[in-house]
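Per reviewer request, we include the raw input and output of the structure prediction for the construct analysed in the revised manuscript.
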Amino acid sequence: MIRKPVAAVQGADVPAAQSQGGAPTLVLLHGWGFSGAVWAPLRAALPGATRVLAPDLPGHGAAGDGEMLADAERTAAALIASLPADVECPVWAGWSLGGLVALAAARQWSGPQGLLLIGASPRFAKADDWPAALPPAELEDFRAALGGGRRRLERRLAMLCARGSQDAASLARRLVLQLQAAPASPEGLEAGLALLEAADLRSVWAGLEVPAAAWLEAGDALVPAAVADDLHRLRPASRVVRGVGGHAEWFARPQSLAGLVVEFLNQCSAGKSA
């Protein structure tokens, strides 16, 4: 297990009073363009005793080394190296792009752990054997948008994340504020998009013998809900929960996801497998 100091992933928030040693530690990994601060609604909905880390991924929030994010394995190694020494059972919970980093971290971690994908997939780009994903042309549209104005990109990303929500316009406005409060660097955005285009971690989802679950939304414009069938095919015993909102529904209404997270942390604490 990697434990050398690496400063590439910043923003960990671990109140000393919540240090619990061998108890599961929830490691929340944000999506493309956002920062660890986006998890505030979910954190507020969790029991106060829950130990949480919400780091900024490379090139996002306060973290530098944006180019690193193009490589999920390097990013995961830096993430693991940044964890407090007393973390013994991380539960990697990744939203959107963060799900890819969560999968890579789970592959590298050598001890007890759990894996939770939130509006995430082990492969974001569509392929002949992976149809429930984004067409390459849509990902290329984001690349073209990187060359335009930052405000336009923020609005487009926020609208896509909010689409399918009960109050998409209000949610999109809140997400824009999140994007503007801790803007990602151009290098981080470019590298993150490269990761979304190229990463294929289906073998990790299928093969890791750890507790694993996924949270998907019926109206998600970025991760089609139909990927649930593919996730079950790769990992028949996994639990896949389907909501009725959009990609960032949990941000607007975090209570349901918080309930699953608590249940999953308890499962990991009991040492059960899925």
